[in-house]
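The protein record passed on below.

***
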Amino acid sequence: MRNALTVTALTFALASALSGGSARAQDGQLPDIGSSAATVLSPTEQAQYGQMTLSQLRNYGFTLDDPLLTGWLQSLGDRLGAASDKPDQAFTLFLLKDRQINAFATLGGYVAVNSGLILAADREAEVAAVLSHEIAHVTQSHVLRAVERAQHDSVPILLAMLGAIAVSQSSHSSSGDNAMMAAMAGAQGLMVQRQIDYTRGSEAEADRIGIRTLARSGFDPEAMADFFEKLQRVVRSNQGGERERVPDYLQTHPVTLTRISEARERARQLAGAAKPFVPETSAIDNPLLPATFALGAVAATGDDGQFPWARERLRVLSADTPSAAVREYERLRAAKALDDPQRYGLALAHLLDGHASAAAGVLSPLLDAHPGDVWVTLALAQAEARSGHAAAADARFESLLRRMPGNRAIAITYAGILDERNTPAAGRRAQEVLRPLLAAAGDDPVFQQTFARSSEIAGDPVRAGEAWAEAAYLNGRPEQALVQLNTLKKRSDVDYYARSRIDARIAAITPTVLELRRQGVRDKDLDPP
């Protein structure tokens, strides 16, 4: 209950403090000419604050870090970002476990998406619509304007609030819960007026720009209006009218009939009366291509087919426990026969609940029906490995690696299975699988944790120590990372190159630790009693 309350309040406070919601209602088109917002924080500082926010959310256990889901979401964000008004802006998308419907953008192009929002969507275009709206908050400098208006409180409040939560989390008593909620209430109270002024200026612009980005990316531009209507239906079905039962997204992004109609009209203008959006196939007017050439379903709809698998995997991983996910699927099955992605989700829940053989029995025919599907193949390989069929599992993993070299989800999943064997040979093979991704996956805590364990098993304690420290840093424990690195460099078996790497990371992490200390955020496990 503590985590559920905290994440809802924290997400709301983050969205209120650092999203476009703090722009004044009368800002209208919010022109960039003459704006001093860009001088508030440099791009480097914005990225640092965004990364700090993500790492602290990880520290409190609010994020959902899964290689498959993260890869799917980030690829969706990259696609939308490339079609945005600022294609050079880097965007980092991440998932939160909370099943409330919510999403928000913060500094440095960091965009958070609640599990509940994806579970509420019927198609990938609806998720893309929300993301394109949040991306527009970044590209149109709404977030920076929010900080400019409140540069004396917004960012400090964010970090101080995180520190207060950390302190309250150290107590398991009801007074700890009270302290946490008091900290959240205090931070939110300072944002109340900005919350009231949320909709007219930045929201209208984010809708307009977001729909354009959506269309440029190849998605149905009407998906934004469709999702807004869905949110309205959620509100209408709210019998009691309690605030906590209203989706968090509507607390920061109010939806009105006017807003829905404007979004649909913009979408129709973009689609064009003569060439409406066609969901399955459409002709393409290009003199460089044959007249008979037609776009397939993937290109026309913008959906590459991964969304149904991603949604069901998310349903399982966002449930309180795997057994709770199994019960959820049983309820779904009581109402209607499960489709293939839902059967995949049920099998995954059984796998995580310790029933690997039962999971393999479901996944094998699923793979026959969807040959080559990565989501199903990875789950089946895991199920085979955990049910005593290591050779078959390894063959599947190795085949996937040859087919998709450099795929982070495949490499991490395979290395994780190898680590479970806890033998030096398995550890060395896991290192071999992961090592090519060291440069590209350095900001992934799951990768670092897996590489650390693989290195330990392989008898490489220095590499293991570096990876454990990096995982601590990425998971919001920079002070612990510093302690681990300073201890590691004292080892007699640290060579010149390893020592250089360690010194470089100490130098890079120290400013973050100093800034967090300045804001009152300390590692409770390292503070003296």
